[in-house]
Amino acid sequence: MRKVLILDARDNIAVCLADLAEGDVVQQDDITITVKNKIPRGHKIATREIAKNDGIIKYGERMGHAVAPIAIGEHVHVHNILGDRLSAEQV
Amino acid sequence: MTSPLKAYKRANGAWGLRNQVLILPMHSALSSTARAIADGSDGAVAISHDWSGEKDNDLARIIFTLSGYASNPNIFATIFLSIGNPEEEQIIKGAQALGLTRFTNLLLPEIGSMEKLQQEAITLANGYVKEAGAQERVDAPWSAIVLGLECGGSDALSGITANPALGVASDRLVELGASSVLGETTEILGAEHLLAARAIDPAVGKKIVEMVARYEDSINYEGIDIRGAQPSRGNIEGGLSTLEEKSLGAAKKAGNAPFTGTLEFGEIPKVAGLYFMDTPGHDIEQLAGFGAGHINVVVFTSGRGTPTGSAIMPTIKVSTNTPMYESIPDLIDLDAGTIADGIETLAQVGDRIFDEIVQVANGKLTKAERGGHHEFALSRMYKTVVK
């Protein structure tokens, strides 16, 4: 059973296929990631170091940018990223 | 690469993946008659619609939708049921200009009896069905496939299972020389600049952005701003963080291939490639636009399941989650939920979808075809004005 789904080789995030807990180790597709915090199924986990203002790449395409540095294994969601055009936070 | 395809060659060079005989009512009041004719025949199909000759701002859109639909290459012959409105001649002429060669126009005022109209139509339909059955499929190139990409009843898994897996199949087909068409302008809102960046030239990219802006203007005009509500609370709980992410998930049906061009609603692609067609989010209206645009096979991804099908285009359903696939066994052709369960990879499911498209193109019936799901709806931009 795979725990995460990498949608494109260019991506810096993966989609979690199961609820992940802090300290879980994901070993799959040549990557080993230690999960930094609790991440629900369907949510994103950082697979690379992401600096503040770096693009978030999903499906090989930019879906927004980081508003804080994000370490490998961290939950990537509305608390640390924003859309480039419009986002729920601005509404 | 040689193709394993066998299809019906039309006089204008287009390819049919089916050889249907279509009963097309030219007035909404002939809809149930059209259905009765199809049911009473040896295999003709019918559509119904709600247009009864209104002369409003949508008239041109309705005329070219019906002309395009009546001349789809999946059709062997069309029987028009007319009531005497002046637009009927225009619809038939339009269909001929788009490649329709075999047809009959039955005029109710000339025949003078509903019963006779029905009997004559059934006799004619049976003759066409017999002729269509005698026509053989011949070797066809990859360009014979003009694939329509659709999603409806999406869920949190759509963007990570069925849609990107369909993208894998679409990319493979486009690479081989087939055409693929992404629709649903509402669904790419917020990601249009990313799709535009994949256009083969800046003019095509500009057009994609303009089509979305045009749609935004029209909904702003209606006093609705859907962007502020996106992504919704439910989306965020499901793991979607930005509007771009949500729209990219829907657009992933079109894989990563470059966009060759844009199509207006119901416009026919002229050269092979990947296209974006400006269609509404309403599944059945959008399918009518695909039919008018001479798309000959559709893949429809769904999270909640939908019985939508077409009288003329085989429609392959792909579920985004396995429980949906298992809950209504005679609705969904393929399951992509295995990706979310970590059982299959995107590439594996993409290959299964590709293989299914090839088999269906060669004549394998989809579940929607076996069930006789023949939906059709006209797309309107304006309020209907009674003439």
Give your account of this protein's structure.
The complex is a heterodimer of chains A (91) and B (387). Chain A has strands spanning 4-5, 13-16, 25-28, 31-34, 44-46, 55-58, 61-66, 75-76, 81-82. Chain A has 91 residues and is mainly β. Chain A has one domain: Archaeosine Trna-guanine Transglycosylase, Chain: A, domain 4, CATH 2.30.130.110. Chain A has a 4-stranded antiparallel β-sheet, with no helix packed on it. The model of chain A is unreliable at 87-91 (pLDDT under 50). Chain B is an alpha/beta fold and 387 residues long. Chain B folds into 2 domains: 20-134, Nitrogenase molybdenum iron protein domain (Rossmann fold, 3-Layer(aba) Sandwich); 142-371. Chain B has helices spanning 31-40, 59-70, 87-97, 108-111, 114-134, 162-176, 185-188, 192-196, 202-221, 233-238, 243-251, 283-292, 322-327, 346-361, 367-371, and strands spanning 6-9, 15-16, 20-25, 45-46, 75-82, 103-107, 138-139, 146-152, 179-182, 259-263, 274-277, 297-302, 315-319, 334-335. In chain B, helix 1 (31-40) packs across helix 5 (114-134) and helix 6 crosses helix 14 (346-361).
Shape of chain A: globular
Provide the β-strand percentage band of chain B.
15-25%
Overall geometry of chain B comes to globular
What number of structural domains do the residues of chain A give?
1
Q: What low-confidence regions of chain A span 5 or more consecutive residues with pLDDT below 50?
A: 87-91
- The helix/strand series of chain B, from N terminus to C terminus, equals EEEHEHEHEHHEEHEHHHHHEEHEEHEHH
What is the total number of structural domains of chain B? Answer: 2
Residue share in β-strands of chain A: 25-35%
Span of the ends, CA to CA of chain B: 54 Å
Strand order within the widest sheet of chain A? 1-2-5-8
CATH architecture of chain A: Roll
Quick overview:
The complex is a heterodimer of chains A (91) and B (387). Helix content of chain A is 0%, strand content 34%.
